From TrEMBL:
Bilayer-crossing regions: 43-71, 83-104, 110-131
Gene Ontology molecular function terms on file: ABC-type transporter activity
Domain of life: Eukaryota
Main location: membrane
Topology relative to the membrane: Multi-pass membrane protein
Range of residues in the leader sequence: 1-19
Annotated protein name in UniProt: ABC-2 type transporter transmembrane domain-containing protein
Residue ranges constituting the ABC-2 type transporter transmembrane domain according to the UniProt record: 6-134
Length: 134
């Protein structure tokens, strides 16, 4: 059961963040070339659209992950426990996508962000609570 928490914290964020970063740069290039010069949409609309478009897929993928992870392993089936874990799974999915967009917005080029992504992955692995001694 503990191994499933390690998978959730270590192996999912790189896949999700890498896909979000690529989409963010593609959308940002389109926005900078088309929308910024014409002043049709500002950066607030751009950022809001990027966040909102990721939310439905985060809910779907978080729900699918929770169904395939929580129920077969045999974790507690009480509504309060399973509901809390489901809520945290969905919130983690929201965090991964918004965190990927935040990291992508830090840098001017995709190459630079690709070079700093491993640092962020190591930091989230170190500070997520898995390595915290009790």
């Amino acid at each position: 059961r503990m191994f499933t928490a390690i998978i959730f914290a270590f192996f999912l964020p790189p896949a999700v963040v890498n896909s979000v970063v690529v989409n963010f740069f593609r959308h940002r290039e389109l926005w900078e070339d088309r929308e910024l010069p014409s002043a049709t949409y500002g950066w607030v609309a751009f950022c809001t659209a990027n966040v909102v478009c990721e939310l439905p897929m985060a809910v779907v993928s978080g729900t699918l992950y929770w169904l395939l992870w929580y129920l077969p392993v045999g974790f507690p089936a009480e509504a309060s426990t399973s509901g809390h874990v489901y809520l945290m799974t969905i919130m983690w999915s929201f965090f991964q996508t918004s965190w990927g967009q935040w990291i992508a917005a830090l840098g001017p080029t995709y190459g630079m962000i690709s070079n700093v992504l491993p640092f962020f992955f190591v930091m989230i692995a170190l500070f997520n609570g898995i390595f915290t001694p009790y």
